[in-house]
Amino acid sequence: MAIRLYHFPQSGPSFRVRIALALKGLNYEPIRIDLMKRESHPEYYEVLSPDGLVPLLEITGDENKEAPIHLGQSMAIIEFLEERFPQQALIPQDALHRAHVRSLAQTIACDLHPLNNLRVMRYLSRPLELDASTRSDWYNHWITEGLKAYEKRLDGLRLFRNRQGLPPSIYSWGDTLGLADCCLIPQLVNAPRMGLELAKLNIPLTLGVFENAMAHSAVQASHPDRF
Ligand SMILES: N[C@@H](CCC(=O)N[C@@H](CS)C(=O)NCC(=O)O)C(=O)O
Asked: Which CATH architecture has domain 2-84?
């Protein structure tokens, strides 16, 4: 079996999938799609990824399937990896705990990232002609809203775990990195890009998770600087 990941190093959703692959100990070949030169996307990529977005996962020779499979959308890719390669679970077993982890993940993947992704930022620039400072206000506003919501959820989960007699979390949920962390960490790594100072946001639980996660070898191996 061979796995390829079509990605762009700084893309948050690509980084999410790289962390998931690393946590599961799956080797893959990274194929760089340069989002800064969209017009020069290789033609084959437009065929594999109809929306032209990254990441895209390709698996060849899995479970006797002859043709390679291609999957888009980082959350669908991670859920597929979780089901197909259950080692190092990214989502807990208990139904309520699973829902909590997914709601953390979706705070980033559904509410925050879509407002700040590259094509939205490009559209604000052209044709809307918002200047750099207004674009940066937009970016920082939505990232602040999203991270504050994440912090409130973490605080609620801290109390929930306490009531359940569960130990305090080291990462977003429990003592292993999981789906929520796959979404959170890239967003925090990318946040200062527009001059946002995370230390001023008053999100101590979120920054504690960040610090712990950044020391993890799977996160280090997946960091944009490594590609
Ligand atoms: N919901 C998608 C979002 C993917 C996405 O927005 N990717 C961005 C990079 S972060 C992209 O490929 N943008 C292409 C462009 O803006 O030209 C996912 O989770 O995979």
From this structure: 3-Layer(aba) Sandwich (3.40)
